[in-house]
From TrEMBL:
Protein name: EF-hand domain-containing protein
Domain named EF-hand: residues: 104-139
Pfam families assigned to the protein according to its UniProt record, in alphabetical order: EF-hand_8
Top-rank lineage group of the source organism: Eukaryota
Protein keywords: Calcium
Segments crossing the lipid bilayer: none
PROSITE patterns hit by this protein: EF_HAND_1 (PS00018), EF_HAND_2 (PS50222)
Matches recorded under PANTHER family: CALCIUM-BINDING PROTEIN KIC, CALCIUM-BINDING PROTEIN PBP1-LIKE
InterPro entries assigned to the protein according to its UniProt record, in alphabetical order: EF-hand-dom_pair (IPR011992), EF_Hand_1_Ca_BS (IPR018247), EF_hand_dom (IPR002048), KIC/PBP1/KRP1 (IPR044205)
């Protein structure tokens, strides 16, 4: 269940989307509603509303901070290129097909990678991935406060 929620969060539209957050206790299955096909540019992201269940707060309660970080590291290893030790365009494209997300367009994958790529190398290292996961978890940010 963790990996499916991790992927659904990771493929959610980045930066300033209009989140319709439902607390886990009353949430339904993750869904994505768009007003038009997936955006090709970051500017078009504001036209998207995302509704998903954020599992990170319940994972934090269940596993603690150290356990949550271990699970994030497991998620990173699931998506990374084994040779480079990074989540690359190629590894994310290949692993998304294995995880049932075969309809992702190349532009969407590039957009996901660029959202978390802090050093500009076009790939995500483990620290960038974990930072991105925390940034994309509105429930975990509320939990921290």
């Amino acid at each position: 269940m963790f990996f499916s929620s991790l992927i659904s969060i990771f493929v959610s539209p980045p930066r300033n989307p209009l989140y319709k957050f439902t607390p886990p206790s009353t949430a339904t299955l993750p869904t994505q509603t768009t007003t038009k096909p997936y955006p090709a540019t970051m500017e078009e992201v504001v036209d998207i509303v995302v509704d998903f269940e954020d599992y990170f707060p319940s994972m934090m309660e269940r596993y603690g901070a150290e356990g949550l970080m271990m699970e994030l590291c497991n998620g990173f290893r699931l998506l990374m290129d084994g040779e480079r030790g990074l989540i690359t365009f190629e590894s994310l494209k290949m692993k998304s097909v294995v995880l049932g997300l075969s309809d992702l367009k190349d532009e969407e994958i590039v957009c996901m990678l660029s959202e978390g790529d802090l050093d500009g190398d076009g790939a995500l290292n483990q620290a960038e991935f974990c930072i991105l996961m925390f940034r994309l978890s509105p429930g975990l940010l509320m939990y921290a406060q």
